[in-house]
Design goal:
heterodimer, A: mainly beta, six-stranded mixed β-sheet, three-stranded antiparallel β-sheet, globular, B: mainly beta, seven-stranded mixed β-sheet, 11 strands, 50% strand
């Protein structure tokens, strides 16, 4: 089943950005998030809905409830400007379509 | 680290192999995946191979046209694509599966594959 993300999200510098990921029964799945900048390898920023790997800034957080998984960036910085993808394993690997985050 | 060639080029109809060399972790204990990004598109799962090569699975659009293999002695992962078309153009990433819930904790920087006549 597909994962649906907004194509783009804009946030003012220092404000809070929220990127959503919707899919069938997503609440019972483990959702992972990646940050992807042009010309670079994707970087895991959240795994298992809300776990932040070592080295990821604590302004990045995740949640999964009410039928929607959400990546939240609190106090957005210029360096957060990137594409963000949600991903689940549901017998196969499924990526969301990606969201371009612009920091204004 | 996962090291990949930067750019590869091929003609339509050809067969091409990509490689991904691992270092800094125990490759032979790691399930590995390939992910593709077509120009202007998002990430697309290509397929995976288990640490001992016994299990493999491929994305629906890739079944019958790719082969994934590995050499644990050489710490290297391979992807072979048969009957290339221009639609296969894109960046191909190798990635290590980090846990049982299927996230990817290490990624290569990707190989840009250009298929053109």
């Amino acid at each position: 089943d597909a994962l649906t993300q907004p194509v783009s999200v804009s946030v003012a510098l220092g404000q809070t950005a929220r990127i959503t990921c919707e899919g069938s029964d997503i609440g019972v799945k483990s959702v992972h998030w990646y940050q992807h900048k042009p010309g670079q390898a994707p970087v895991l920023v959240i795994n298992r809905d809300s776990n932040r790997p070592s080295g990821v800034p604590d302004r990045i957080s995740g949640s999964n409830s009410g039928g929607t998984a959400t990546l939240t960036i609190t106090g957005a910085q210029d360096d957060d400007e990137a594409d963000y993808y949600c991903q689940v394993w549901d017998n196969i690997v499924i990526f969301g379509g990606g969201t371009k985050l612009s920091v204004l | 680290q996962l090291m990949q060639s930067e750019v590869r080029a091929a003609r339509p109809g050809a067969t091409l192999g990509l490689s991904c060399r691992a270092s800094g972790f125990k490759f032979s204990d790691s399930d590995m995946h390939w992910v593709r990004q077509a120009p202007g598109k998002g990430l697309e799962w290509v397929g995976f191979i288990s640490s001992n090569e016994r299990n493999k699975d491929f994305g629906d659009s890739w079944k019958g046209r790719i082969s994934i293999s590995r050499d644990n002695g050489e710490n290297t992962l391979y992807l072979q694509i048969f009957r290339l078309t221009t639609d296969d153009t894109g960046v191909y990433y190798c990635a290590r599966e980090g846990g049982t819930s299927g996230w990817f904790d290490y990624w290569g920087r990707g190989t840009l594959l250009i298929v053109s006549s």
